[in-house]
């Protein structure tokens, strides 16, 4: 029979609860997507609504 060693997985992935605020790649990409979406709305779609073309 093989002898198995027990691994401690606690130290490999530190929990995010210890950090107050962390900027990871997902946060940055979602923030960039929101900014681009807001820019498109304010730059292109809002003037069309304001002129009465879309409403």
Category from helices, strands and their pairing: mainly alpha
Number-wise, the strands total 0
How would you state the average pLDDT, rounded?
81
Helix content: 40-55%
Low-confidence stretches: none
Radius of gyration: 24 Å
Largest sheet report: none
Distance between the termini: 76 Å
Tell me the fraction of residues in β-strands, as a range. under 5%
- Helices, by number, come to 1
Shape: rod-shaped
Please name the defining characteristics of this protein.
single chain; 55 residues; mainly alpha; 49% helix
Would you write up a description of this structure?
This protein has 55 residues and is mainly α. 49% of the residues lie in helices and 0% in strands. The chain starts with 24 loop residues before the first helix and ends with a helix. The mean pLDDT is 81.
Please give a quick description of this structure.
The protein has about 55 residues and is an all-alpha fold. The chain has one helix at about 25-50.
List strands and helices in order, with pairings.
Layout: H1 25-51
